[in-house]
Amino acid sequence: MNEQAFRNEVREFLKANFPEKWRFPAHRLSLKETHDWQLKLYEKGWAAPSWPKEYGGMGLPPYEQLVFQEEFDNYGVNSAPNMGITMLGHLLIRYGTEEQKAFYLPKILSCEIRWCQGYSEPGAGSDLAGLRTAAVLEGDHFVVNGQKIWTSYAHDADMIFLLVRTNKDVKKQEGISFLLADMKSPGITIKKIKNLTGNSEFCEVFFDNVKVPKENIVGKINQGWTMAKSLLGAERITIGAPKIARFPLKLVKQLAMDNGLFDDPVFKARYTELTLDVDDLDAAFIRFAEVLRRGDELGPEVSMLKIWITEAAQRVTDMLVEVGGEASVLDAPVSLSDGGSVHPANQSFSSRPASIYGGTNEIQRNILAKAVLQLPG
Amino acid sequence: MLDLQSRIDRLTEEQQMIRDSAASFFSDDGDLKGIRAQRGQQPGYRDERWQSMAELGWLGLMLPEEYDGMNLKFSEIIHLLEQSGRFLSPEPLVSTAVMGAGALLHGENDVCKSEYLPKLAAGEWKVAVAWQENIASMSLEAEAVTAKETDDGYVVSGKKLFIPSAGGADAFVISAKAGGRTILLLVNKEAEGVSVEFNERVDGGFFGTLSLNNVVVAKDRVIATAGVATLERVIEESRLAVSAELFGVMARALEITVDYIKQREQFGRPIGSFQALQHRAVDTFILVELSRSVLIQAAKTFDETEDTAARAKAASQVKARCSDAALQVTKSCIQMHGGIGYTDECNIGLYLKKAMVLAAWLGQATFHRTRYGELTNAA
Ligand SMILES: Cc1cc2nc3c(=O)[nH]c(=O)nc-3n(C[C@H](O)[C@H](O)[C@H](O)COP(=O)(O)OP(=O)(O)OC[C@H]3O[C@@H](n4cnc5c(N)ncnc54)[C@H](O)[C@@H]3O)c2cc1C
User: How does pLDDT run across A326-361, given as a tens digit for each residue?
Assistant: First the structure.
């Protein structure tokens, strides 16, 4: 199918199925509140653009994935990433047992099980390998004790994929395992954390003698770190996708047209500069994603995408706040003439942590310096 | 970190005194619990505190002695406002004691001055200036609010936007188009036809929208007939004042962050030992000290001249730098905090929010850079 036909098909589908009231929402919608829409995507076979076809994905080549996403952005679809699809699915496809794949993958696609990612801890953020939440094998179960923090959408999740310490006596990276736990297990408690927008998208998750069935380990015991790292590559290319800047860029344009700024040549020049920051990233993204499509692995170089696009997104939301003038600092959405709305301050707030989550941009720069430039130290 | 001010700048006794007393007053709420409790509340501050400020003489900071004022120089006022900025004071010091008081003081109505300014200084009466009519428009000419002349005064109608601290105000100085010119009028909040709508801001304070519907204003409530000139003076002075608060916001944000990165450990070391963060912190520090330098210079200009072009240029230079730097600094501080910086619970976010509000008010950096360019190239 040629590109235009594909774009038309996506657009038509969105028009027919995506609820008008959710277009250009003032804040990012959760998977839970958009459950019906997720089901429609699933029924159409469009839940997982990047998964291979044999597992129920669309098997789209990287460029087509971008095109697909761009149509969503243009239509004003803004919902939280489905971590089952963007992260866990890839890991299960690669490391899971046949039983795990057969059981979990369809339930991820159909949104029957919503997932959250339990890696970070109060003492283990950038130094993730320093994590201390411990799992001890007792008979048929691991018994888990400890605490996770910053767990996005834990309050909406049915299950959590988490990193736990299974050996304290070896190098810290070598004593970590990867578990899947039911959020309803006795001993798990969740505390929501309010963020700068006033919403709660992330949580603290406490584990007090939580029993996790032995078969819920993915990969071998103490192999969790290597697997999680390979997943971080997939996470970083996801975070490195143009989407997070493309969407607010669209809002900047609309708001600037509404405020009569779009014809101002100085504004136009700055807007175009930002547009190029995002368009150029498209080129890099496609080039990198192609590596994954070939079945090869992306190395540390993928960090450059994440650094570039998260910082570009911050420049875009800075501009959005500027374009909105004094109304931007009100804690209220501004109506747009195309029927949508924008909350400039919240767009700006939520672009801040993009350079923090998924490994901070300082950490990404360290990685590039050491592993790509091969600088000493 | 070192206190550079005490190494570099020779403060006068007056400057030192106002700085010290303001520091001790505002640092009372050092953990910002008091400010958190005021978020989303009206008027947004405790009257008790406002009264204490009155007792300290601060509400009359700009006023001459005949109106019970302290008659401070701008180079002293900035030290007071730096401290209120550092502790995110929600009290309407700039909007009442600088802007509101300035509108009356620089106007022509001596009766109103004698009647209201001593009350303002005593904390018994608060006034806000309502002049803006459009988003991001810094035009001083009133268009949307009109004043029709009658036998005993004016009938005023229209809408004013983005009025700070309108909740606590007893009255407004409004600009209105009368005949061909813009005049300033004093309007009581309780007057018939006056209504205020409040819009909550991200920092928990409010901007008011004032609607005037055939409000009758007596002739003796005309504050200024040369409205644009008076407003211009008031707004330039307010820009300097708000820049001082912005400066306080960024300076304190940096200190909080430097303390945090000294104490937070990852990889078995304080994160402040990583060169990436050290360089980031240093870049932030440079912005702060650059801003301070411009602030000191601008205050001096305001003390030395009443020339409108010179003041406009100084106001734009300092508002552009402080708005831009405060935003950059507070965002960088959030980055240095990591995940905790994105939480409501952590104070650093309050600094970003305050910086956003003050940066947007009275002209954002882009506006002021453009104006600075025009003023410079015209000279
Ligand atoms: C919105 C949001 C959503 C998140 N969602 C999830 C989730 O779903 N699941 C999950 O597990 N985690 C999640 N996280 C956590 C995220 O991965 C961590 O916040 C991140 O890894 C940083 O850790 P930290 O917050 O402890 O900061 P710290 O590690 O304490 O970092 C603080 C500062 O120090 C710097 N720093 C640290 N080490 C170095 C170094 N060696 N060199 C230079 N600079 C350094 C950092 O760059 C940062 O600027 C989320 C975070 C956010 C903000």
Answer: 999 999 999 999 888 899 999 999 999 999 998 999
Residue with structure tokens 């039983």? A99
Domain B127-225 sits in CATH at 2.40.110.10
Report whether residue B268 contacts ligand 1, using a CB cutoff of 6 Å. no
Q: Domain coordinates of chain B in residue numbers?
A: 4-121, 127-225, 229-378
**Known active-site residue A297:** no
**Distance between CA A223 and CA B238 in Å, rounded?**
62
Q: How many residues belong to chain A?
A: 377
Q: Which of B139, B202, B362 to mutate to test the interface with A (most CBs of A within 10 A)?
A: B202
Give the Cα separation of B126 and B148 in Å (integer): 26
Tokens for A297?
Answer: 């692995």
- Helix (H), strand (E) at residue A164: strand A159-165
- Dist. CA B45–CA B84, nearest whole Å: 13
Section B12-37 average pLDDT? 95
CA of B290 from ligand 1 middle (Å) equals 30
The matching CATH number, chosen from 1.10.540.10, 1.20.1250.20, 3.30.565.10, 3.20.20.70, for B4-121 is 1.10.540.10
Q: Are strands B269-270 and B265-266 parallel, antiparallel or unpaired?
A: antiparallel
Is the complex ipTM more than 0.90? yes
Q: Which residues of A touch B41 (CB under 8 A)?
A: none
Distance in Å from the first CA to the final CA of chain A: 50
Catalytic one of A235, A297, A301, A322:
A235
Regarding the beta carbon of B266 and ligand 1, being less than 6 Å apart is answered yes
d(C-alpha B331, C-alpha B348), whole Å: 9
Residues forming a β-bridge with B201: A330
CB–CB of B352 and A353 under 8 A?
no
For domain B229-378, give the CATH superfamily: Butyryl-CoA Dehydrogenase, subunit A, domain 3 (1.20.140.10)
Residue identified by tokens 């304190």 is B252
pLDDT digits (tens, 9 = 90+) for A242-298: 888 998 999 999 999 999 999 999 999 999 999 999 999 999 998 988 887 776 778
Can you spell out the DSSP letters for A314-362?
HHHHHHHHHHTGGGGGBSSPEE-TTS-EE-HHHHHHHHGGGGTTTS-HH
Find the chain B residues whose C-beta atoms sit closer than 8 A to any C-beta of A: 132, 135-136, 161-162, 199-203, 207, 265-268, 271, 274, 276-277, 280, 327, 331, 334-335, 338-339, 341-345, 349, 352-353, 356-357, 360-361, 364, 366, 370
How many of the other CB atoms lie within 10 Å of CB of B191? Answer: 16
* Binary contact (B335, A355; C-beta < 8 A): yes
